[in-house]
Amino acid sequence: MRIGHISDLHILAISDVRPWQYLNKRMIGGLNLLLNRSKAHSSVVVERALEALASLDVDHIVISGDLTNLALDSEFAAAAEIIRSIESASTRVSIVPGNHDYYTPGAAREGRFERHFKDYLVSDLPEYQLERGYPFCHLRQDVAFIGLNSGLATPWLFATGKVAEDELEQASRMLDDERLKSRFKVVVVHHPLMADEHHRFNFNRRLLNADQVLTTLRQKNVDLILHGHNHYLSVLQVPKLGEPGTTFVCEAGSTSMEGGDPVMAGKFNIYTVEDGALAEIETHLFESHESGFRPFRSEVFRQRVEEQAG
Protein backbone atom coordinates (compact mmCIF):
# COMPACT_ATOMS: atom_id res chain seq x y z
CA MET A 1 0.00 0.00 0.00
CA ARG A 2 1.09 3.56 -0.74
CA ILE A 3 -0.05 6.11 1.84
CA GLY A 4 -0.02 9.84 1.10
CA HIS A 5 0.43 12.22 4.05
CA ILE A 6 -0.49 15.91 3.97
CA SER A 7 -0.93 18.23 6.93
CA ASP A 8 -1.37 21.76 8.25
CA LEU A 9 -3.29 23.09 5.26
CA HIS A 10 -4.42 26.27 7.07
CA ILE A 11 -7.16 27.02 4.56
CA LEU A 12 -8.15 30.69 4.78
CA ALA A 13 -11.69 31.89 4.01
CA ILE A 14 -12.60 35.10 5.85
CA SER A 15 -14.43 37.20 3.25
CA ASP A 16 -17.79 36.91 5.06
CA VAL A 17 -16.51 37.11 8.63
CA ARG A 18 -18.24 39.64 10.90
CA PRO A 19 -16.09 41.94 13.09
CA TRP A 20 -17.47 40.51 16.34
CA GLN A 21 -16.17 37.08 15.37
CA TYR A 22 -12.68 38.42 16.12
CA LEU A 23 -13.52 39.32 19.73
CA ASN A 24 -11.69 36.28 21.08
CA LYS A 25 -8.47 34.37 20.36
CA ARG A 26 -9.05 35.09 16.64
CA MET A 27 -7.79 38.64 17.27
CA ILE A 28 -4.26 37.22 17.64
CA GLY A 29 -4.77 34.81 14.76
CA GLY A 30 -6.07 37.58 12.54
CA LEU A 31 -3.03 39.71 13.30
CA ASN A 32 -0.80 36.75 12.47
CA LEU A 33 -2.60 36.39 9.15
CA LEU A 34 -2.08 40.04 8.30
CA LEU A 35 1.61 39.89 9.16
CA ASN A 36 2.62 36.48 7.88
CA ARG A 37 0.48 33.37 7.54
CA SER A 38 -1.93 34.52 4.81
CA LYS A 39 1.09 35.09 2.56
CA ALA A 40 2.73 31.77 3.46
CA HIS A 41 -0.11 29.25 3.04
CA SER A 42 -1.98 28.70 -0.20
CA SER A 43 -4.99 26.50 -0.97
CA VAL A 44 -3.74 26.35 -4.56
CA VAL A 45 -0.61 24.58 -3.32
CA VAL A 46 -2.84 22.05 -1.54
CA GLU A 47 -4.69 21.42 -4.80
CA ARG A 48 -1.37 20.89 -6.59
CA ALA A 49 -0.35 18.41 -3.90
CA LEU A 50 -3.54 16.41 -4.40
CA GLU A 51 -2.98 16.41 -8.16
CA ALA A 52 0.55 15.10 -7.60
CA LEU A 53 -0.64 12.41 -5.20
CA ALA A 54 -3.23 11.26 -7.74
CA SER A 55 -0.51 10.92 -10.39
CA LEU A 56 1.68 8.93 -7.97
CA ASP A 57 -0.95 6.23 -7.44
CA VAL A 58 -1.39 6.46 -3.69
CA ASP A 59 -4.00 4.14 -2.21
CA HIS A 60 -4.95 6.20 0.84
CA ILE A 61 -4.43 9.78 2.05
CA VAL A 62 -3.93 10.87 5.66
CA ILE A 63 -4.47 14.49 6.76
CA SER A 64 -3.04 15.14 10.22
CA GLY A 65 -4.88 18.27 11.30
CA ASP A 66 -4.99 22.07 11.05
CA LEU A 67 -7.15 22.12 7.96
CA THR A 68 -8.28 25.65 8.88
CA ASN A 69 -6.76 28.83 10.24
CA LEU A 70 -9.43 30.23 12.57
CA ALA A 71 -11.95 27.35 12.79
CA LEU A 72 -14.57 29.34 10.88
CA ASP A 73 -17.43 27.56 9.14
CA SER A 74 -16.34 29.20 5.88
CA GLU A 75 -12.85 27.69 6.25
CA PHE A 76 -14.18 24.23 7.06
CA ALA A 77 -16.48 24.41 4.03
CA ALA A 78 -13.60 25.44 1.76
CA ALA A 79 -11.36 22.67 3.11
CA ALA A 80 -14.13 20.08 2.73
CA GLU A 81 -14.66 21.10 -0.88
CA ILE A 82 -10.96 20.62 -1.66
CA ILE A 83 -10.92 17.19 -0.02
CA ARG A 84 -14.04 16.08 -1.90
CA SER A 85 -12.02 16.51 -5.10
CA ILE A 86 -10.06 13.37 -4.14
CA GLU A 87 -11.38 10.34 -6.01
CA SER A 88 -13.47 8.12 -3.67
CA ALA A 89 -12.56 10.48 -0.83
CA SER A 90 -15.00 9.02 1.70
CA THR A 91 -13.19 5.66 1.63
CA ARG A 92 -9.66 6.82 0.76
CA VAL A 93 -9.09 9.63 3.28
CA SER A 94 -8.48 9.64 7.06
CA ILE A 95 -8.57 13.04 8.79
CA VAL A 96 -8.01 14.23 12.36
CA PRO A 97 -8.36 17.77 13.76
CA GLY A 98 -5.56 20.04 14.94
CA ASN A 99 -5.42 22.92 17.38
CA HIS A 100 -6.42 25.43 14.69
CA ASP A 101 -9.57 23.40 14.02
CA TYR A 102 -10.48 23.86 17.70
CA TYR A 103 -9.29 27.46 17.73
CA THR A 104 -12.07 28.82 19.95
CA PRO A 105 -14.32 27.26 22.61
CA GLY A 106 -17.28 27.81 20.29
CA ALA A 107 -15.69 25.83 17.47
CA ALA A 108 -14.92 22.96 19.85
CA ARG A 109 -18.30 23.05 21.59
CA GLU A 110 -20.27 23.10 18.34
CA GLY A 111 -18.19 20.30 16.82
CA ARG A 112 -17.56 22.24 13.61
CA PHE A 113 -14.75 19.97 12.48
CA GLU A 114 -16.82 16.85 13.15
CA ARG A 115 -19.87 18.30 11.39
CA HIS A 116 -17.99 19.15 8.21
CA PHE A 117 -15.91 15.95 8.10
CA LYS A 118 -18.34 13.41 9.58
CA ASP A 119 -18.07 11.16 6.51
CA TYR A 120 -14.36 10.64 7.25
CA LEU A 121 -14.96 9.74 10.91
CA VAL A 122 -17.08 6.67 10.17
CA SER A 123 -15.27 3.82 11.94
CA ASP A 124 -14.91 0.20 10.88
CA LEU A 125 -14.68 -0.67 14.58
CA PRO A 126 -17.47 1.54 16.00
CA GLU A 127 -17.65 -0.33 19.30
CA TYR A 128 -14.48 1.50 20.41
CA GLN A 129 -15.55 4.95 19.20
CA LEU A 130 -16.69 7.52 21.75
CA GLU A 131 -19.71 9.71 21.08
CA ARG A 132 -17.54 12.64 20.02
CA GLY A 133 -16.09 10.57 17.14
CA TYR A 134 -12.70 9.29 18.34
CA PRO A 135 -10.84 7.04 18.20
CA PHE A 136 -11.90 5.84 14.76
CA CYS A 137 -10.45 3.01 12.71
CA HIS A 138 -10.29 2.61 8.93
CA LEU A 139 -9.39 -0.88 7.72
CA ARG A 140 -7.91 -0.68 4.23
CA GLN A 141 -6.20 -3.68 2.64
CA ASP A 142 -3.64 -4.90 5.20
CA VAL A 143 -3.40 -1.53 6.99
CA ALA A 144 -5.37 -0.14 9.95
CA PHE A 145 -5.61 3.67 10.30
CA ILE A 146 -6.47 4.83 13.83
CA GLY A 147 -7.41 8.49 14.30
CA LEU A 148 -6.90 10.34 17.60
CA ASN A 149 -7.99 13.85 18.52
CA SER A 150 -5.41 16.07 20.26
CA GLY A 151 -7.24 19.35 19.57
CA LEU A 152 -8.01 21.72 22.44
CA ALA A 153 -9.51 25.18 22.65
CA THR A 154 -6.63 26.92 24.40
CA PRO A 155 -6.01 30.41 25.84
CA TRP A 156 -4.33 33.13 23.82
CA LEU A 157 -0.70 32.39 22.88
CA PHE A 158 -1.12 28.66 23.56
CA ALA A 159 -1.32 25.82 21.02
CA THR A 160 -1.13 22.85 23.35
CA GLY A 161 -3.05 19.63 22.85
CA LYS A 162 -4.13 16.53 24.73
CA VAL A 163 -5.52 13.11 23.88
CA ALA A 164 -8.35 12.55 26.36
CA GLU A 165 -7.83 9.73 28.87
CA ASP A 166 -10.98 7.83 27.86
CA GLU A 167 -10.06 8.17 24.19
CA LEU A 168 -6.57 6.78 24.79
CA GLU A 169 -8.06 3.89 26.78
CA GLN A 170 -10.42 3.06 23.92
CA ALA A 171 -7.56 3.26 21.41
CA SER A 172 -5.55 0.86 23.58
CA ARG A 173 -8.43 -1.62 23.58
CA MET A 174 -8.89 -1.19 19.85
CA LEU A 175 -5.23 -1.96 19.20
CA ASP A 176 -5.67 -5.26 21.07
CA ASP A 177 -8.51 -6.31 18.76
CA GLU A 178 -7.80 -9.51 16.83
CA ARG A 179 -8.85 -7.79 13.60
CA LEU A 180 -5.76 -5.56 13.90
CA LYS A 181 -3.23 -8.18 14.95
CA SER A 182 -1.94 -9.00 11.47
CA ARG A 183 -2.30 -5.48 10.05
CA PHE A 184 0.25 -2.69 9.70
CA LYS A 185 -0.98 -0.16 12.28
CA VAL A 186 -0.92 3.59 11.54
CA VAL A 187 -1.96 6.14 14.19
CA VAL A 188 -2.78 9.69 13.12
CA VAL A 189 -2.68 12.57 15.63
CA HIS A 190 -1.97 16.27 15.13
CA HIS A 191 0.52 17.10 17.89
CA PRO A 192 4.02 15.54 17.90
CA LEU A 193 4.75 12.88 20.50
CA MET A 194 8.51 13.48 20.72
CA ALA A 195 11.11 16.07 19.80
CA ASP A 196 14.15 16.21 17.55
CA GLU A 197 16.57 18.93 16.51
CA HIS A 198 14.01 20.64 14.27
CA HIS A 199 10.87 20.20 16.35
CA ARG A 200 9.51 23.08 18.38
CA PHE A 201 8.46 21.21 21.53
CA ASN A 202 7.85 24.38 23.51
CA PHE A 203 5.86 24.62 26.74
CA ASN A 204 2.98 26.44 25.04
CA ARG A 205 2.82 24.18 21.96
CA ARG A 206 3.32 20.68 23.31
CA LEU A 207 1.04 17.67 23.66
CA LEU A 208 0.38 17.66 27.38
CA ASN A 209 0.38 13.86 27.70
CA ALA A 210 2.85 13.06 24.91
CA ASP A 211 4.88 10.57 26.96
CA GLN A 212 1.77 8.65 28.00
CA VAL A 213 0.40 8.50 24.46
CA LEU A 214 3.72 7.45 22.92
CA THR A 215 4.31 4.76 25.55
CA THR A 216 0.83 3.33 25.02
CA LEU A 217 1.26 3.20 21.25
CA ARG A 218 4.69 1.58 21.54
CA GLN A 219 3.31 -1.00 23.98
CA LYS A 220 0.58 -1.81 21.45
CA ASN A 221 3.16 -2.24 18.67
CA VAL A 222 1.99 0.60 16.45
CA ASP A 223 4.13 0.65 13.31
CA LEU A 224 3.77 4.25 12.14
CA ILE A 225 2.64 7.47 13.87
CA LEU A 226 1.82 10.40 11.58
CA HIS A 227 1.50 13.93 12.96
CA GLY A 228 1.71 17.60 11.99
CA HIS A 229 1.87 20.87 13.97
CA ASN A 230 5.56 21.77 13.63
CA HIS A 231 5.67 22.38 9.85
CA TYR A 232 8.99 20.49 9.65
CA LEU A 233 9.92 17.28 7.87
CA SER A 234 10.84 14.68 10.48
CA VAL A 235 11.45 10.92 10.53
CA LEU A 236 12.12 9.42 13.97
CA GLN A 237 12.42 5.80 15.08
CA VAL A 238 11.88 4.27 18.52
CA PRO A 239 11.72 0.60 19.57
CA LYS A 240 8.36 -1.03 20.05
CA LEU A 241 7.71 -2.08 23.64
CA GLY A 242 5.43 -5.07 23.08
CA GLU A 243 7.49 -6.98 20.53
CA PRO A 244 10.72 -6.61 18.54
CA GLY A 245 10.54 -3.94 15.89
CA THR A 246 10.42 -0.20 15.26
CA THR A 247 7.75 2.46 15.66
CA PHE A 248 8.27 5.27 13.14
CA VAL A 249 7.13 8.79 14.12
CA CYS A 250 6.88 11.03 11.05
CA GLU A 251 5.85 14.51 9.95
CA ALA A 252 5.81 15.73 6.36
CA GLY A 253 5.65 19.45 7.14
CA SER A 254 2.98 21.96 6.14
CA THR A 255 1.75 20.99 2.69
CA SER A 256 0.36 24.43 1.86
CA MET A 257 3.53 26.48 2.39
CA GLU A 258 4.21 28.61 -0.67
CA GLY A 259 7.86 29.37 -1.42
CA GLY A 260 10.68 29.55 1.08
CA ASP A 261 13.74 27.38 1.51
CA PRO A 262 13.51 23.56 1.36
CA VAL A 263 13.24 23.32 5.15
CA MET A 264 9.92 25.20 5.25
CA ALA A 265 8.52 24.83 1.71
CA GLY A 266 5.33 22.83 1.19
CA LYS A 267 5.74 19.05 1.36
CA PHE A 268 3.93 15.76 1.43
CA ASN A 269 5.13 12.25 2.18
CA ILE A 270 4.35 8.87 0.65
CA TYR A 271 4.87 5.78 2.81
CA THR A 272 5.15 2.43 1.02
CA VAL A 273 4.11 -0.58 3.09
CA GLU A 274 5.14 -4.01 1.79
CA ASP A 275 4.68 -7.38 3.47
CA GLY A 276 3.61 -5.78 6.74
CA ALA A 277 6.60 -3.43 7.03
CA LEU A 278 7.52 0.14 6.13
CA ALA A 279 9.69 -0.14 3.03
CA GLU A 280 10.15 3.48 1.90
CA ILE A 281 9.34 7.10 2.70
CA GLU A 282 9.31 9.53 -0.22
CA THR A 283 9.11 13.28 0.36
CA HIS A 284 7.92 15.64 -2.36
CA LEU A 285 8.63 19.40 -2.25
CA PHE A 286 6.66 22.32 -3.69
CA GLU A 287 8.95 24.08 -6.15
CA SER A 288 6.76 26.62 -7.95
CA HIS A 289 3.28 27.11 -9.37
CA GLU A 290 4.69 26.32 -12.79
CA SER A 291 6.40 23.03 -11.91
CA GLY A 292 4.39 22.01 -8.84
CA PHE A 293 5.84 19.34 -6.53
CA ARG A 294 9.05 17.44 -7.22
CA PRO A 295 10.80 14.50 -5.49
CA PHE A 296 12.93 15.81 -2.63
CA ARG A 297 14.27 12.84 -0.65
CA SER A 298 13.72 9.14 -0.12
CA GLU A 299 14.61 6.62 2.58
CA VAL A 300 14.47 2.89 1.80
CA PHE A 301 14.32 1.00 5.09
CA ARG A 302 14.14 -2.62 3.99
CA GLN A 303 17.19 -2.19 1.78
CA ARG A 304 19.10 -0.77 4.75
CA VAL A 305 18.18 -3.78 6.90
CA GLU A 306 19.28 -6.19 4.16
CA GLU A 307 22.58 -4.35 3.73
CA GLN A 308 23.24 -4.48 7.48
CA ALA A 309 22.42 -8.19 7.55
CA GLY A 310 24.77 -8.81 4.62
Task: Characterise the protein shown here.
- The chain has 310 residues and is an alpha/beta fold.
- It has one domain (2-309): Purple Acid Phosphatase, chain A, domain 2 (4-Layer Sandwich).
- It has 9 helices and 12 strands.
- The protein has helices at 26-40, 43-55, 73-84, 89-92, 105-110, 112-116, 165-175, 210-219, 301-309, and strands at residues 2-6, 60-64, 93-96, 136-140, 143-147, 184-188, 224-227, 234-239, 246-251, 267-274, 277-288, 292-300.
- The strands form 2 sheets. The protein has a 6-stranded mixed β-sheet with strand order 3-2-1-10-11-12. A 6-stranded mixed β-sheet has the order 4-5-6-7-9-8, with helices on one face.
- Strand 6 (184-188), helix 8 (210-219) and strand 7 (224-227) form a beta-alpha-beta unit.
- The chain is globular, with a radius of gyration of 18 Å.
Biggest beta-sheet profile: 6 strands, mixed
Helix content, binned percent? 25-40%
How are the strands ordered across the major sheet?
3-2-1-10-11-12
Q: Give, in order, the helices and strands.
A: EHHEHHEHHEEHEHEEEEEEH
GO molecular function, one term: metal ion binding
Pfam family, one: Metallophos
Keywords: Hydrolase, Iron, Metal-binding
InterPro entries: Calcineurin-like_PHP, CNP_phosphodiesterase-III, Metallo-depent_PP-like
